[in-house]
Amino acid sequence: ACSEFSQRSCEECLKNVSCLWCYTNNTCIDYPVRSILPPSSLCGLSNARWGVCWINFEDLIIAVAVIAGLILVSVTVCCCYCCYCRKRSRSTPDEEEEQLARKREERRLQSLQRKHERKLKHDEIRKKYGLLQDSDNPYSRFENE
């Protein structure tokens, strides 16, 4: 069916996806499906057109290969970068987390210190008014005098 479009125009030939246009002799031929690239005996790659008329088959292959390579490289770089960032974030805690832990520990120590000071002050007041119990017998009965 593609040979019917020979000696016409490239656009008419390439309306059918299974056709290949050759500029050397202006022929429309069936695309050789068994081989990925059309053999040079059929038509040279620089003169063959498939899909669109404005780019030859050789340039089309190069463009597709470059685009596929760029996509492959960018996906690889993104994957490596993401894996590196995850690994880095797991191995070392953030500075903010370290600062929060230090502040939390400082507050805990200050709280314990204030608690101890309060206890000493309360013990002084109890001692002053005679309310401090004997440490030997803490369960002794309170006597009223």
From TrEMBL:
Sorted UniProt keywords: Coiled coil, Membrane, Transmembrane, Transmembrane helix
Protein origin, superkingdom: Eukaryota
TM spans (from-to): 60-84
Coiled-coil region(s): 95-122
GO cellular component: cytoplasm; nucleus
InterPro entries referenced in this protein's UniProt entry, alphabetically: PTTG1IP
PANTHER family per the UniProt record, alphabetical: PROTEIN CBG20567, PSI DOMAIN-CONTAINING PROTEIN
Name the UniProt record assigns to this protein: PTTG protein
Species lineage: Eukaryota, Metazoa, Chordata, Craniata, Vertebrata
Gene: Pttg1ip_0
